Amino acid sequence: MVARRKVAVVGVALSDCGRVDDATPYALHAQAARRALADAGLDRSLVDGFASAGLGTLAPVEVAEYLGLRPTWVDSTSVGGSTWEVMAAHAADAIAAGHARVVLLAYGSTARADVRAGRRTGTLSFGTRGPLQFEAPYGHTLIAKYAMAARRHMIEYGTTIEQLAEVAVQARANAALNPQAMFRTPVTPDEIASGPMIADPFTKLHCCVRSDGGAAVLLAAEEYVRDCRTEPVWVLGSGEHISHSAMSEWPDFTVSPAAVSGRLAFERAGVRPSEIDFAEIYDAFTYMTLVTLEDLGFCAKGEGGAFVEKGRLRVEGGELPVNTDGGGLSAQHPGMRGLFLLVEAVRQLRGECGDRQVRRGDGSLPRLTVASGTGGWFCSSGTVVLGAG
What we know:
Layout: E1 7-14, H1 25-40, E2 49-51, H2 61-67, E3 73-75, H3 83-96, E4 102-109, H4 111-116, H5 142-157, H6 161-175, H7 189-193, E5 197-199, E6 202-203, E7 213-221, E8 233-242, H8 258-269, E9 278-281, H9 286-295, H10 304-308, H11 327-330, H12 338-349, E10 368-375, E11 380-388
Parallel strand pairs: 2-3, 2-4, 9-10
Antiparallel strand pairs: 1-7, 1-8, 4-7, 5-6, 8-11, 10-11
């Protein structure tokens, strides 16, 4: 039996993000990929695995062709925002088993520019095929699904809209420390409450921004780490789970699939939530952060509202800094944001984040983190535990 190799993230990068009116999604994929390879210091010829989703008729075949890659291992798993954590897990397994040596994950989207130029409209529905045909006629949009789940949590556990607003307030505080964040001006709970209603109980600032941008992550077998210019960040454990498609098939609106993917990831990594120094959590809406914190085990079910109070999620002075770049609520959100979580997690563990750098109580760099992506309307979850080299 062949021994399983250790797997590290050796390169990460973002493309130009925020407001990018003069690039195609393919160009953003390529820009991020080139930057990730340069970050790692590895030659492109070593890349024999490629994973991507969301672009092209035959994703990721078209993107690989555009990048000049001819991979012998490929993944096109598409489960919404959690796609990239799931792909990272698949890539790590493939590398560990000897099926690939270096795998590139790449994503790029011009979601904002396309709306601005009239090439598409805002996504209000995923369509009316399959099980969705029973919900779409009633105006049950993507945002409405999240709003309904949030309202259930409020009814069940007494969670308040002010507590949900604190997630956005603290995300913006973290974004203020990130010069690349799309929105950096501080916001108050009153400003959030007075904003236009999008889907009750969510006003505008409870919802993620719409941006352009791309990201890339490079994973490699342990024998290539010595050839890299960066310190390795090791993949310690991962988990994935799918829950439902139709809301009628979701057993409990207050429990996300991260309750399963997180448990699996922590068990496989051999660590406890209490050992995590910071967390990168998918935050298309404020409720996603709150319920995922519960389901990952950072607080008990129903206590997420109290947990997010008192600044716990802030880089500056927070007990558990969350979404240290400002997250999808303030930094950038070009669509399936899961890959951006991994980029920020790795940069934090390598100590490259400047004013937003997380420090442990003794002033040292963080050692452990978790990145947890959510897809659809809590339909899927992928969770990855990472450790510093």
